[in-house]
Each structure stands twice: as structure tokens, then as C-alpha cells.
Design goal:
The longest helix has 9 residues. The chain has a domain of 86 residues. Helices cover 10% and strands 39% of the residues. A 6-stranded antiparallel sheet has the order 2-3-1-8-7-6, covered by helices on one side. Strands 4-5 form a two-stranded antiparallel ribbon.
Length: 135
């Protein structure tokens, strides 16, 4: 999932595909990272923790942000986003692409599912932050 917005704001984007995969994979993954050894530790059940943040700009001066999150969700839950933070959400929300039912936006922001169901946007005033889920 990538965030396409005109303003910077910390920790809004959650890379859902990575989250889902991290919920499915065992928490201690060993040395899978090509950049060096990974730190192996347990995440408290029912929670998610940000382990890496990435940021760049494209040629249109639109900032793109993503983050890698490690989750340990309860049965029936998968990794998602609640109030612009990574969290465990009901699996049916993600499976049926009812993104706004996760409450992914900050208080005061309006959530709208994208017309093609590939993500959602959070808006307030003239600011729009769009999050797309990629698989």
C-alpha cells in the first residue's frame, strides 16, 4: 500500500500486504532480509509494531510513504489500519474491501473507499491522503 498525498504526516501509511504476510508468517523469521540479520522478537498478541519506515518523492513532487509492520493478531483478525496506526482488524473487513470500517482515518477526517475498491482516502478541508492496497 502506498500513500499518495501532498503533505507529509507520520505513520499514516500501512503496507497492508506486508502486514497480512507478517500475520500469516511466524513471528521469528530469522535472517530473511538481504540487508543483514533481522531482529527476532515477539509482538504482544493482538497488537502491531512498526519495524521500518520508508519515504521518497516521485517526479510529480508527491511524497510516497510506506512502513513495514510486524503484527500478532488473534484468530479471525488480520493486519490493518485504525486511526492512521497499524492494528489488527476483523478479517472480513479486508476480505470484502470495506476499508472505512477499519476506521483508518484520524478523528475529524472523512473516509471514502476508492471507486475501484483498491484502497481509501482520508480528507479534511483541501487535504486528501490516499492509501492504495497492492497485492
Amino acid at each position: 500500500m502506498k500513500l499518495w498525498g501532498r503533505t507529509a504526516w507520520p505513520f499514516q501509511v500501512t503496507f497492508l500486504v506486508a502486514l497480512v504476510m507478517l500475520c500469516i508468517d511466524p513471528v521469528s523469521t530469522g535472517n530473511r532480509n538481504h540487508r543483514g540479520p533481522t531482529v527476532s522478537y515477539q509482538v504482544k498478541q493482538g497488537t502491531c509494531e512498526v519495524v521500518a519506515v520508508h519515504r521518497c518523492c516521485n517526479k510529480n513532487k508527491i511524497e510516497e510513504r510506506s512502513q513495514t509492520v510486524k503484527c500478532s493478531c488473534f484468530p479471525g483478525q488480520v493486519a490493518g489500519t485504525t486511526r492512521a496506526r497499524p492494528s489488527c482488524v476483523e478479517a472480513s473487513i479486508v476480505a470484502q474491501k470495506w476499508w472505512c470500517q477499519m476506521q483508518p482515518c484520524m478523528d475529524g477526517e472523512e473516509c471514502k473507499v476508492l471507486p475501484d475498491l483498491t484502497g481509501w482516502s482520508c480528507s479534511t478541508g483541501n487535504k486528501v491522503k490516499t492509501t492504495k492496497v497492492t497485492r
